Amino acid sequence: MDKAALDPSDSLEKPSTSKIEKRPGSASSSDSEQVETTKKCKKDIKMETNNEDSLKVKITLPDALKDWIIDDHDLVNRQKKIVQLPARITVDHILANYVRERVSTKALTKVWEDSVVDFSNRMRELFNVSLGKSLLYKFERPQYSQMLKDHKEIKMCQLYGAAHLTRLVCKIGDMLTSIREETQDRTPPGYFVNQVEDFLKFIASKESLYLSADDYMVATPEYHRQAMT
Q1: Which Gene3D superfamilies does its entry note (predicted)?
Q2: Short-list 189, 188, 190, 135, CA closest to 160
Q3: Whether pTM exceeds 0.85
Q4: pLDDT at position 192, please?
Q5: Is the CB of residue 205 less than 8 Å from the CB of residue 134?
Q6: CA distances from 169 to 42, 51, 160, 163, 197 (A)
Q7: Alpha helices, DSSP H only, in 104-160?
Q8: pLDDT per residue over 107-133, tens digit each?
Q9: Could you give the C-alpha distances from 63 to 34, 72, 158, 200, in angstroms and in order?
Q10: Smallest Cα–Cα separation from 140: which of 80, 62, 180, 94?
Q11: Is the pLDDT of residue 185 over 80?
Q12: Rounded CA gap, 93 and 208, in Å?
């Protein structure tokens, strides 16, 4: 078979290879416009990037909690275990302990004391709202449904514990970023971020007390069937 027949490019009109003569040192108006347009695009991209960065909320996570998040994921998703509920130490108790420990510091001002109490209350509310939406793995949902059925008058912060609270705190940075992007709020979030990071340090300092693989139990065959539906 003729090789030329296989090349569809041969049927296309070839562009002229003749050079366009230009005067030395001269540039067309279209070239100048293109250069200016390129400069403007680069400037706009840089401004857009800076604006996006100004909306991001970065939270520093202690190494101990980074390791725990990995262990927690493995316990639920690979080993197919679920947390024993009600938790040994609930979210409600952990936040109360945090307030008690911070307020007992002699150097703490009244304004800071009030902010610690306010922070703990906001965290309780955020936990109750976020648990069913973004803090559960799929395998945990049957258990959550059962908790809602069996404890209609009890808030989730009084049933769940440190494992799910840690998941929440680790997600707060992304949550705040999402809210700020939607509202274009560029107010520095430093105050709340400092509170969150202080709370993370508190949990990390008591990791052996609050976070334990012993708080998980092997799910029953019946539970496995429910989780698969």
Answers
A1: MRG domain (1.10.274.30)
A2: 135
A3: no
A4: 76
A5: no
A6: 37, 25, 14, 10, 9
A7: 110-134, 141-150
A8: 677 788 888 999 999 999 999 999 999
A9: 50, 14, 27, 11
A10: 80
A11: no
A12: 16
Q: Are 55 and 186 in contact (CB under 8 A)?
A: yes
Residue 99, number of CB atoms within 10 A of its CB: 16
User: ∠ at Cα 15 (14, 18), nearest 5°?
Assistant: 125
Residue keyed to tokens 């080993």 = 79
What is the DSSP secondary structure assignment for residue 159, as one 8-state letter? T
Taken as a whole, the chain contains a residue count of 229
What φ, ψ does residue 81 adopt, rounded to 5°?
-110, 160
Residue 97: half-sphere exposure toward Cβ, Cα within 13 Å: 15
Residues 45, 132: Cα–Cα separation, whole Å: 38
* Neighbouring C-alpha atoms within 13 Å toward the C-beta of 135: 25
